[in-house]
Automatic annotation (TrEMBL):
Protein name (Swiss-Prot/TrEMBL): LLM class flavin-dependent oxidoreductase
Entries under SUPFAM superfamilies matching the protein: Bacterial luciferase-like
Binding site for FMN: 100, 154, 211
Keywords: Flavoprotein, FMN, Monooxygenase, Oxidoreductase
Alphabetized Pfam families for the sequence: Bac_luciferase (PF00296)
Family stated for the protein in its record: Belongs to the NtaA/SnaA/DszA monooxygenase family.
Molecular function GO terms recorded: monooxygenase activity; oxidoreductase activity, acting on paired donors, with incorporation or reduction of molecular oxygen
PANTHER family in UniProt: ALKANESULFONATE MONOOXYGENASE-RELATED (PTHR30011), C2H2 FINGER DOMAIN TRANSCRIPTION FACTOR (EUROFUNG)-RELATED (PTHR30011:SF16)
Organism per entry: Streptomyces alboniger
Residues annotated as domain Luciferase-like: 26-380
Source species, domain of life: Bacteria
Length: 436
């Protein structure tokens, strides 16, 4: 008699199209264009073949700079997210389509209209990753300019999202537009919305943030939270904290999916996987990237330093504007002290230290081992699933879908078919109550 596979909690999977920081290995000959539509199509089709919940695009509003020059190891010129996702709606059938768009430098009516259009075009597969933008460097590209204080950008984002939901609900159940009026701290708008209620009611809302403000915003308003935590223990702590905040907003634990961004390396043996992972880390952190990462912490020009030499003996200068458009390191002295301690303990060079601290894969091993690790992570309440970030595009997801997904399915931890048509159905989320 055939033994039934052990049942596990169902894992949610999504695919991230990478291209910032040192995630992508540009030097690999298999690394393709980040502008040609064929790259986006390949990764999306692979994700749909793997029955993923959604395809996820990040977005930058200004090319990042270092020492006054555009950082040439980052993506520059990638098409705008909603345009790409609208095109992908025509070449996919079930895969969710998630775009990152800032609530700081957009307006509710226009953005709500664009996401409603994507939801209609895709048959209910749209998602909005709501982010905030705090720096004046990015703000220079916009009429409003400047920046918002940290607290203000989250209150604006919360009101922005609430306003968008008012617009999505403004049509009557009989399919007729009716006037809306929103008079708040950040927005005073009134008129009539142009789009009928979309197939899944509201696009799915994703929030990416690890701060206390970000966690609270996610607990109050998001359907999915995109985060990062490197260990099982850290994942369980984050999971318990965020899920524990939901009750204050009258929400249940299953109404918010926690999906950390993860990387992986597969090998025929554990030793082969570890060897491949080490090589990928070396490629991700080139000598140039190692010095750049060091300068982000120290805040001074370190171009005269040898990447294969020791860390600087000088203290950081935290007020530096050496790097523009990157997340600021809040406590460079603590980071520098940690890096020095690691370097001294292990005898590491600058490049080796950066590799050790900034470029580490989440899951490494044989396909069976990686499937087991992922199931364990979800079973231990450290996540509801994962957003996979390949180090290569467009083919970086191919091996995972071909080798790991079937093993997750055998374990009973992953779907064998799409059972619904909308992204909400993939995620097990209810359609929002119509407040129109």
């Amino acid at each position: 008699m055939t033994q039934r596979p052990e049942r596990h909690r169902q894992i949610h999977l999504a695919a991230h199209f990478p291209g910032v920081n040192s995630t992508t290995v540009w030097s690999d000959p298999r690394s393709g264009s980040h502008i040609d539509f064929s790259s986006f199509e390949h990764l999306a089709r692979t994700a749909e073949r793997g029955l993923f919940d959604f395809f996820f695009l990040a977005e930058g509003l200004r090319p990042r700079e270092h020492k006054g020059r555009i950082h040439d190891l980052d993506v520059v010129g990638r098409p705008e997210s909603l345009t790409v996702l609208s095109a992908l709606a025509a070449v996919t059938e079930r895969l969710g389509l998630a775009g990152t768009v800032s609530a700081t430098f957009n307006e509710p009516f226009e953005l709500a209209r664009r996401f409603a259009a994507l939801d209609h075009l895709s048959g209910g597969r749209a998602a909005w990753n709501v982010v905030t933008t705090s720096d004046a460097f990015t703000g220079e590209n916009f009429r409003r300019g400047g920046y918002l204080d940290r607290a203000d950008r989250y209150t604006r984002a919360a009101e922005f999202l609430a306003t968008a939901r008012e617009l999505w609900d403004s049509w009557t159940p009989q399919g007729r537009p009716r006037p809306f009026a929103h008079h708040g701290e950040h927005f005073r708008i009134e008129g009539e919305f142009t789009s009928p209620r979309s197939p899944q009611g509201h696009p799915v809302v994703i929030q990416a943030g690890d701060s206390s403000e970000g966690r609270e915003f996610a607990a109050s308003a998001a359907d999915v939270i995109f985060t990062r935590h490197g260990t099982l223990e850290a994942g369980r702590a984050f999971y318990a904290d965020v899920k524990g905040r939901l009750a204050a907003y009258g929400r249940h634990a299953d109404e918010l999916k926690i999906m950390p961004g993860v990387t992986w390396v597969l090998g025929d043996t554990a030793a082969e996987a570890q060897e491949k992972a080490a090589e990928i880390r070396r490629e991700q952190v080139s000598p140039q990237n190692a010095i750049l990462a060091l300068e982000q912490v120290w805040g001074v020009d370190l171009s005269s330093y040898d990447p294969d030499g020791p860390l600087p003996a000088i203290d950081p200068e935290p007020a530096s504007e050496l790097a523009q458009g990157r997340v600021k390191i809040t406590d460079p002295f603590a980071v520098a002290a940690k890096w020095r301690a690691l370097s001294e303990a292990k005898g590491l060079s600058i490049r080796q230290t950066v590799i050790e601290t900034t470029a580490r894969q989440s899951f490494i091993g044989t396909p069976a081992s990686v499937a087991e690790q992922m199931a364990e992570f979800v079973g231990a309440d450290a996540a509801d699933g994962f957003i996979l970030v390949p180090h290569l595009t467009p083919g970086g997801l191919d091996d995972f879908v071909g080798k790991v997904v079937p093993l997750l399915q055998e374990r009973g931890a992953y779907r064998t078919e799409y059972r619904g048509a909308t992204l909400r159905s993939h995620l097990g989320l209810r359609e929002p109550v119509w407040k129109g």
